[in-house]
Amino acid sequence: MKQRQMSSWTRTRPYSPFNMSSQNPQVTRFCWQCLQLDAAPEYPDGEVLCLDAVQEEIYKKLFGHDIAFPLPPRYGLKVLKELTSRIERSIVDWEEHGISDNLMTTMSELLSVPLPSEVVAAQQKCHVAYHLSLLQEPSDAAVVLLESRSIISGSGTTGLRTWEAALHMGQYLCANPTLVKGKRLLELGTGTGYVAILCAKYLGAEHVIASDGSEDVVNNLPDNLFINGLQGTDRVSVSELRWGHALLGTEEEEWNGGREVDVVLGADITYDASVIPALVATLQNLVAISPGVVILIAATERNRATFESFLEVCQKRGFHVHYELFPVLPRPEQRGPFYNDATPIHICQLTVA
């Protein structure tokens, strides 16, 4: 197997992993999927991969030494093994094409260091970049989060990773930015803060309260605000809010200083039937404080009975549930973020009946 030396290249400033301009959409898609740590990224076709310029581009975007958020070693090695194998299979004329020295050297370096087991790696926090493909500007916009890829963290919370409903809610808001622009928002069950950060950083929200009932989740949110340049700003605040409990002020006499909110958002907060009554009770309290509030819930329908339980409680508590027409795009049509297209995700607007 012949390796081929790539031409040298220089940088005038630190390289950004979000400089995704490319003449080949397959390469752009693949790189965004890898930056999202997609379990099954879609590799470019063989006739594309064998090109020297493409290999160099992939190396710079995913494995360059000065990118801001390197891939986790175990994931990076997995991608490199499959990538180099596909390149090798694609090459017909080894005099004309070869495998990048940069890619091969990086793979050798990763093979030479001890890597964590899959179980340990899943619990470790790593940077995940979610491309916001529905935003017109900037074209390389992304929300970057430090999160755990395990379903449930060691502390027992599900809020240290970003779930599909949050990604779908984000796409819906990107497609309908007037719902957020200039508005005061409250997000319930914010988890990693994906939706709150998206609204504050890219969609022009006046202020976002990122709330969660888990102390561990709330304590982790400042890291993600910092990564996305929102630390020390007045656009986002973090709050511990337990559903079903009275909305009380902490430093201020009234909750949120007596200020109303315009929009309440919640993504994947209806998965547990046992907490739905408390959730809806909190929504009732919020309507009492902010009578004109718009309530939007992104609900993943993993279990029909649980989803119907949510609808039933809403009806009993005086809410009408309206479905927004915004289906999940088929996976081949997604350009980022990338998420499962097999399970329905409903965007629901709740109004007082």
Main β-sheet, spatial strand arrangement: 7-6-5-8-9-11-10
**Termini Cα gap:** 70 Å
CATH topology of the largest domain: Rossmann fold
Please outline the major beta sheet.
7 strands, mixed
**Helix and strand pattern:** EHHHHEHHEEHEHEHEEHEHEE
Structural description of this entry:
With 353 residues, the chain is an alpha/beta fold. The chain folds into 2 domains: 3-111, no CATH class; 133-352, 3-Layer(aba) Sandwich (Rossmann fold). It is 34% helix and 17% strand. The protein has helices at residues 25-35, 46-49, 52-62, 73-90, 101-111, 118-123, 164-175, 194-201, 215-227, 276-289, 304-316; strands at residues 3-4, 99-100, 125-131, 142-148, 184-188, 207-212, 236-240, 263-267, 294-300, 319-324, 345-352. The strands form 3 sheets. A 7-stranded mixed beta sheet has the order 7-6-5-8-9-11-10, sandwiched between helices. Strand 6 (207-212), helix 9 and strand 7 form a beta-alpha-beta unit. Helix 4 (73-90) packs across helix 5 (101-111) and helix 7 (164-175) runs parallel beside helix 8 (194-201). The radius of gyration is 22 Å and the shape is elongated. 39% of the residues are buried. The model is unreliable at 1-17 (pLDDT under 50).
